[in-house]
Amino acid sequence: MIICPDGTSTTVTCNVESNGDGTHTITCPGGGSVVVRDGEQLPSGSIAGTVTRYGLPAISGIKAEVLELDRSALTDDAGRFFLDDIRPGVYRIRFTYPGYAPLELANVLVFGNRVDAGESVLKVGRLIATGDVGWELSPDESKVAVLANHERGALSVVELFRGEAHMVAPDADDPYFLDDRFLVYRTGSDASNVVVYDYLVGSSTVVGSNVHSIAALGGLFLEGETGIRFVRLPGFETTDLPGVGVTYISRDGRYVALADIGWQPLGIFDTTRGELIQPEDPMDAFYAVDPVRGQMAYFREIGDVYWLVVLDPATGWSTSVEPVPGPGAIWWSEDGNLLGYIGTDGIRIHDLEGGTVLGLGITDPWGMSFSPTGRFVFVPTFWGTTVVDRVSGELWSVENGWGWTFTESERWAFVRTWRNVEMLDTTDGSTRWIDSELDQFFPLPGEELFFAAAYGQAFFYDPVTEERTELGEGAKWVPSDDHSRVMFTDPVTGHLSVLDLGTRTTSDLGVKGVASAPAGDHFLAITNMDRLAFGLIGDGAWFPLDEQLVYRDVYRTGFFYQTRDLSRPTDSADLRLFWVPYP
């Protein structure tokens, strides 16, 4: 019997041979041999081995850690590690290296000898599941819900760092995370039951049947034929609410607009306070909710006059803005400070913070959109699109009405179509065109230049002079998340290359392939090294994978990739899902 460091004991069947001189040779399976004298305690031992990265030469710096003792060592240039002064016991050894999935060796027996742990190989990606599965990542990206058979089947939650799986339900459908703790799914013969799984305590609770569930701050809404119910978590307290549907949810999920069967507004429910704030005599189904503070703009008839009214759920007060010809479309800016509507003399914009109203004199709008700061307003009509500078009061004309992107300073706005790019200079309202089908187009820091790629050619574009500076030829240009670098395929060598947009220098990575997507500070790419592979590239480091890529899903802290065995290309049971954290 061996007493382990955590106080537990493990019984191991060993062979003991007497040497005739007062010593004995003890041989245990998987642990080698050690010689001890009569009455002598087993001495401390050591663990040695090698750790390498799949498909790559040995490297120093891979960590080997004895979990039960909080002891660790790093590999040398040959990939070897050595841990000494290990008291007798049965241990787990974990190997870790940035960009690779942790690997554990279990049941390493030490009883006074030197244990050879052999060679361990790290791979990019922890195996999460096999087969044709569906998956849903938690908001904090620490765990993933895995659904067998892709659409309906056994549901489990896997911790991404440790790889531990927790069974949730043997038969489930349509799972999604409410937050980092609660997972919602459906079950039952017709998947009619809505169930909430509490990851913290490992329990499931049925909260409704034949209803549609919608996530919100602090709980979820259930929409059914008999009304709306809010389920507050973690206590599962319920609040019955009027109406048949949830129509708007503020960006933080706190304020939720409810409507009746005719889609007229019934009020704003504050999920934090658990209160329903109702508008006064709303008319018609024309209303809109501020995406930040949850304010509801709606129409009310006072006497014989139609008024535009704003209900603030934080105070419960309603403010009459001004008379209007009748109910019509309403638009909010992204910050919730500006309200656009159709007044007696055409489109008007009400600044709630400044208390000012700007009339545009446009009577036949198709819609309205605001720049991020709200300074510039786009109003498309049958006759074209008008751009309004709310500071100077100037009006300009552009061709495209939708899909405009602003640079950070809002000096430039641009919209890409399938055949060209239209640009707007917001200092004077002038426009310019780039008549190319661009694969990439984005501003560099400082916004003096734009990077562009079209028809296999990359160039810098100066929007002031409209001059181009050629950067070279390449295929499949993919920028990094911060737009500081671009990966492409060199048309001459076929090698993956990285162009630094700051220094304008190009690095040949020496590997043939095609860029796939940005991934944090790195890139994903499909390569054909000495096999078909999927890789993560950053600062010259290459992390190869040894299987055929089927699907990939990129997130903030890592990415999923799914592979299959080339020898069984049609066998869905052979699919494998991996998770790779960024280094």
TrEMBL record:
InterPro entries in UniProt: Carb-bd-like_fold, WD40/YVTN_repeat-like_dom_sf
GO molecular function: carbohydrate binding
Stated name of the protein: Carboxypeptidase regulatory-like domain-containing protein
